[in-house]
Design brief:
Length: about 90
């Protein structure tokens, strides 16, 4: 964890953000010898398939099969016709 003065960060904000992104290190902003804020790198972005893959590896086979079947059933049930949709403005 790196400590920088709020003035220094304000003067070099773009460079500081680049450093947080590049080094993936938290930076603490200090004003008058007190910690006032933290710049924390964003967690790596994951799409739904990556999250599902991580979940799939942590559960047992029976639960994984049940979850997969439930998702498949939900996908099939959503395929309807436009005329079957409920009109939200209808009285």
């Amino acid at each position: 964890m790196k400590r920088l003065s709020a003035t220094n960060v304000a003067r070099n904000f773009s460079a500081v953000l680049d450093e947080v992104e590049r080094d993936q290190e938290e930076i603490v902003l200090v004003r008058n010898q007190r910690q006032v804020a933290r710049l924390v790198p964003e967690a790596p972005r994951q799409d739904a398939l990556e999250v599902f893959g991580d979940l799939y590896r942590t559960i047992d086979d029976d639960t994984a099969d049940s979850l997969s079947a439930a998702i498949g059933a939900t996908r099939k049930s959503r395929r309807g016709r436009l005329s079957e949709l409920r009109d939200p403005w209808a009285g």
